[in-house]
Amino acid sequence: MQHMNFGKQRGISLFGVIFFGMIIVFVAMFAAKVVPAYIEYANLKKIVVDSARGKETPQDVRRTFDRFLDVNQIDVISGKDLEITKESNGLTASFKYTKSISMAEGIRLEIDFAASSKD
Questions:
Q1: Distance from CA of residue 54 to its chain's centroid?
Q2: Do 40 and 76 touch, CB atoms closer than 8 A?
Q3: What are the pLDDT digits (tens) for 22-75?
Q4: Which of 3, 41, 78, 105 is the most buried (most CB within 10 A)?
Q5: pTM: predicted TM-score of the whole model, two decimal places
Q6: 18 close to 64: Cβ distance less than 8 angstroms
Q7: Whose CA is closest to 54, among 92, 84, 82?
């Protein structure tokens, strides 16, 4: 029979497993609430570039932008929220908005997003 030396045992305790499990759950919950906001922003950025390309008037840009928003079911901003300027190479549309995400009771995360069609 061999004698075991407990002083050289390695591994993680039950408390360690629970602690790291809680951290993983917290990170997953945070990502589940924040990642959709960034996906929505990426879609809006693409939409504003597509809306401003080749348009002659600000009304055309806003109308096209609103159509894209309807198709993609995005309602955080609308065509009237666009800031449209005339550049030497055409119209440039930009937007900015704040997304408010409820993380828990009494805890709210606010993220400011902004993009332009010339980015």
A1: 27
A2: yes
A3: 999 999 999 999 999 999 999 999 999 999 888 888 999 999 999 999 999 999
A4: 41
A5: 0.79
A6: no
A7: 92
Lateral strand order in the sheet of 83-87 = 83-87, 90-104, 107-116
Give the CA dihedral 101, 106, 107, 113, nearest 10 degrees. Answer: 40
What letter does residue 117 receive in the DSSP assignment?
T
Specify the amino acid at residue 63. Answer: R
Structure confidence at residue 118 as a pLDDT band (50, 70, 90): confident
pLDDT digits (tens, 9 = 90+) for 68-99: 999 999 999 999 999 999 888 888 999 999 99
Predicted local confidence at residue 87, as pLDDT? 84
Six-digit token string for 82: 């666009």
Q: Is 99 helix (H, G, I), strand (E, B) or coil?
A: strand
